[in-house]
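Title: Comparing notes on inverse folding

I've been comparing how different people in this forum approach sequence design from structure. To keep things fair, I'm posting one structure and asking everyone to reply with a full sequence. Here's the target:
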């Protein structure tokens, strides 16, 4: 039989989280962000759950083609734009919208021979300092784009660097609003953190509607996959988000160790009393972080317990002290939803590994079988 490990993608949770984002965004249209192969879930596996989105946002042409092949006829946005002049031909053929964040991309558009003008999203670097035109160069970029026959509608966008923390979005929002105040075009501003934490700012909106963070399009990413964008300040449950991926594996061995017995490479865990441990068929070669220390939460048959010792390539040891009924074949839920309905947030596991839930989702190994379930 196959090795007893399985990742499950929950379609109902995808739908729920998309609707949660839509509620937060009010009248805004919603991009379902499916970059990085839908945050490790698989574009084909999440498509049904995200059918109610107004558009799909992603990074590369291969992902765009896959979404079109699934039958999607609505908007698709390339979040990093094109990388070469020839990419614009495929943008025309697939009817893709694309971000313009640098002078070189405007040059490509100017050199592109087409009878069909393209929809672009002009990006401002309002403080993230990754992609986008500096505020003082933004209007001249807009003017040049607006003069090109290859360009149809120009939308305006930026990306918040601190929406998940105490700095918030006020400075970047003010910078963006000041530069774009009288420019036509739809706006797209919110990532997951901005959408959930800053969508409603009645004080600012009362004096200046331009300061509303939610505008024409919102771009939720991690929230769609059931992870809190501002963990540990808030949990996914606080934001009414449901886990969309469960990673579970079976216990394949039971060991009884005595006081002073150690577990795993380096003997980093030493028992201070007799105890039972379970050996789970999952390790860092499956995408479970090797950096997870003793004490990382895990559910065994839906009961909370902890890992013991170092994570191996193919196995993890778990404490069965509080799960006396567990044995060979019991299920360890490494993150997600157990059969009894108990939830282990992926954020809690990621925090123990010193990382974020995004990375765990994206790191799911190819050797792990995946099924789609409601």
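Reply #1:
Here's my take.
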């Amino acid at each position: 039989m196959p090795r007893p490990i399985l990742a499950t993608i929950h379609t109902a949770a995808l739908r729920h989280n998309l609707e949660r984002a839509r509620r937060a965004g009010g009248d805004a249209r919603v991009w379902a962000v499916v970059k990085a192969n839908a945050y490790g879930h698989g574009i084909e596996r999440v498509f049904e759950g995200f059918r109610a989105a107004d558009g799909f946002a992603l990074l590369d042409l291969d992902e765009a083609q896959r979404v079109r092949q699934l039958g999607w006829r609505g908007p698709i946005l390339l979040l990093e734009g094109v990388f070469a002049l020839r990419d614009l031909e495929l943008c025309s053929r697939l009817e893709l919208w694309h971000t313009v964040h640098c002078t070189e991309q405007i040059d490509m558009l100017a050199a592109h021979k087409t009878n069909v003008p393209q929809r672009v999203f002009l990006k401002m670097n309002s403080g993230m300092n990754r992609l986008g035109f500096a505020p003082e160069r933004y209007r001249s970029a807009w003017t040049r784009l607006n003069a090109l026959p290859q360009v149809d509608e120009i939308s305006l966008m930026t990306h918040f660097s601190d929406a998940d923390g105490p700095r918030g979005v006020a400075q970047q929002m003010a910078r963006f609003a000041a530069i774009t105040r009288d420019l036509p075009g739809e706006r797209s501003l919110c990532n997951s953190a901005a959408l959930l934490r800053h969508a409603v700012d009645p004080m600012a909106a009362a004096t200046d509607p331009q300061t509303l963070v939610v505008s024409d399009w919102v771009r939720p990413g991690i929230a769609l996959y059931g992870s809190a964008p501002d963990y540990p300040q808030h949990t996914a449950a606080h934001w009414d988000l449901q886990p969309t991926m469960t990673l579970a594996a079976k216990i394949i061995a039971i060991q009884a160790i005595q006081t002073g017995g150690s577990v795993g490479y380096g003997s980093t865990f030493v028992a201070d009393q007799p105890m039972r441990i379970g050996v789970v068929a999952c390790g860092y070669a499956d995408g479970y972080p090797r950096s997870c220390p003793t004490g990382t939460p895990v559910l065994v048959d839906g009961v909370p317990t902890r890992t013991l010792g170092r994570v191996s390539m193919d196995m993890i040891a778990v404490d069965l002290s509080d799960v006396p009924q567990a044995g060979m074949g019991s299920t360890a839920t490494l993150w997600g939803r157990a059969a009894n309905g108990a939830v282990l947030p992926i954020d809690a596991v990621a925090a123990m590994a010193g990382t974020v839930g995004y990375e765990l989702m994206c790191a799911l190994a190819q050797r792990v079988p995946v099924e789609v379930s409601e």
